[in-house]
């Protein structure tokens, strides 16, 4: 029975090659293992792929949608904050990184453009890159499906808007 299970694992790895990603600076943080365990096997219609680095995962054909846990958290910023609220009332703040941002991930430059998001107010931070090829509606749609995984990291801060500041 054990050889059957091991063989199935080997066959599963024979599909698309692993997505090459750099690990985040805090990829070894134990909370990142829990974040990865909370990610879905399918992201929309995209199937999970193997990756080359600790605390990372990917979905879909090249260029893949990628998630890295343990990236450097963003400090206060004027970049766009996207608040993803789930039906149960929980929410995750994501900063949409601009291509000129020093934290903009190298793999986001592949293909015909991509959107890059990093959690705000959570340490370690989680980064998601959504290539344009996989966007059929809003590029933020995948963030709804990934919110349960991002919520594994407790929120320490939240985005504020102009109306929140006295």
UniProtKB/TrEMBL annotation:
<dbReference type="InterPro" id="IPR021903">
    <property type="entry name" value="DUF3515"/>
</dbReference>
<feature type="signal peptide">
    <location>
        <begin position="1"/>
        <end position="18"/>
    </location>
</feature>
<dbReference type="Pfam" id="PF12028">
    <property type="entry name" value="DUF3515"/>
</dbReference>
<protein>
    <submittedName>
        <fullName>DUF3515 family protein</fullName>
    </submittedName>
</protein>
<keyword id="KW-0732">Signal</keyword>
